[in-house]
Amino acid sequence: MTRVNTAHRKNERGITIVLVAISLLSLLGMAALAIDVSTLYMAHGEAQRAADAAALAGARMFASSGYTSASSTLAASDICQTSAVPGAAAAANRQAEAVAAQNLVAGQPAAVQSITCNTTAANPQISVTVQRTALPTFFGRVWGGAANSVTATAVAEAYNPSGSAAPIQVENVKPWLIPNCDPTNGGVGDCAAGGRFVDPADGSIENNGSFVGKTITLTHVTGGAAPNVTTTIPRTLDYYRADVPVSPAPVCPSTSAVSCAQVGSDDYHDNIACSSRFQFSCGQTVGAGQTVFVAGGSGVLTNEGTRCLIHASNQGLTLGQDTLQANGTSAPITITGGDNNPNPLLQGVTNISRSDSIVTVPIYHKAGSPNLCPGGCNQTATIVGFLQLGITQNVQDFSPPKAGSRGKIEGVIMNVAGCNPGAGNPVVSGGGVSPIPVRLIHQ
Q1: Measured between alpha carbons, how far is 281 from 362 in angstroms, rounded to an integer?
Q2: Which of 38, 79, 239, 433 could be stapled to 176 by a disulfide with Cβ–Cβ 3.0 to 4.6 Å?
Q3: At CB < 8 A and 24+ separation, what contacts does 258-261 make?
């Protein structure tokens, strides 16, 4: 019996090596699956973040170029072009591709595979698909597995709440109250329908936003007179200087920055030169007895604060500030970084998507005359919208009837967002220096 068992055991010699080999193969297979799947999962997450960033950058170009509704007079093809291959010349495409390339997917810059535009929607949308091919694997190639790829898609939009059920609140608003009078469409007298930026009844944009891309000049109102509206070129619109709280404290540039030596010397100056964190809201009451009220004018502070804000070394054009070019009613507004742009990478670059020269100004409405100071600034008005202005220059104004006055600001109208008085919650926050927020709507 013993001899039989011994012979049987001799026949089993070497089987352990076979079992170990099979086990190792199984372990290697499991390792390949676990590690390579984890790698693909991480790469897909990186690709999704790249797609999100690219889509938001493209949507931001909608807001900064003035195209935020299907009724815009701007040519949609100049803003965004649907393309199955990268390289389209449209502004949103270029921004999306540039931002995508700044995001790494498995150690390599993300590449935009395709861009789809929907400019017929109430809020223009851009869809960006990012792909990373030839994704390296660690163990899969041991088994002859082919290189993998990952793709991710994100959709973003520029959301214009004008006329909608969502009220908005905006930070970084400059302390200039302008009446709801559109100088590009004959807004005179009591600023009647057809001559306003927004319809105060529902917050909808009047005249299909035909004022976008047109140049206006803001000047400080004279004494107790009603704000002046000049509809002939150069178009002018008077503003009231507003006293705006400086709490929370604004974010300010250094006093060593170009034209910023006066930072910290005056609240009104700082609310121009700095990034104000006080929030203006739709339907807010301004004027006598309110948190925001009309204060005495100081053109010198307006000039100094504006030059600090736009990084201009003096009054006039091409003095270091960014250049904003209105290309007519059928093309987007283009922004070129100036020599004093605080980001050296943006200096001299065309079609940048942000600029400190782009500001938001509150629009007020008052029944009857827009005069807030007819013998003392004792009137109140309601905020019915926000105008996005690209400041091109600050100049002194010594021409009649304001000889010797200051505080003249020239700029390009980039957008308007209106307030619906019947709107409820939730409140939508504007996009930083723009009343038009951008948001991801699908990923």
Answers
A1: 9
A2: 239
A3: 258/307, 258/308, 258/311, 258/312, 258/313, 258/320, 258/340, 259/304, 259/307, 259/308, 259/311, 259/312, 259/313, 259/314, 260/308
Output the average pLDDT for the chain.
84
Ramachandran assignment for 96, one of left (phi > 0), alpha (psi -120 to 50 degrees), beta (any other): alpha
Structure tokens at 238: 């008077």
How many C-beta neighbours within 10 Å does residue 349 have? 14
Distance CA 408, CA 220 (A): 7
- Asked if 145 and 39 count as a contact pair (C-beta separation under 8 A), the reply is no
What is the Cα–Cα distance from 343 to 131, expressed in whole angstroms?
29
What average pLDDT score do residues 414-420 get? 87
Both tokens of 21, joined, read 């080999």
Beta carbons within 8 Å of 416's beta carbon, 6+ residues apart: 162, 197, 198, 205, 209, 211, 212, 363, 385, 386, 387, 388, 435
CB atoms within 10 A of CB 425: 8
pTM of the model: 0.79
For residue 403, name the pLDDT band (cuts at 50, 70, 90).
Answer: very low
Take residue 400 and report the two structure tokens written for it.
């009649």
Closest CA to 195 of 206, 208, 205: 206
What's the number of CA atoms in the CB half-sphere (13 Å) around residue 301? 21
Domain ranges of the chain: 15-158, 168-436
Q: Identify whether 401 is preceded by a cis peptide bond (ω within 30 of 0).
A: yes
Positive or negative: CA dihedral 43, 45, 49, 55: positive
CA 228/CA 189 separation, integer angstroms:
9
DSSP letters of 277-329?
-PPEETT-EEETTSSSEE----HHHHHHHHHHHHT-SSSSSSSSSPEEE---T
**Contact between 119 and 59 (Cβ < 8 Å):** no
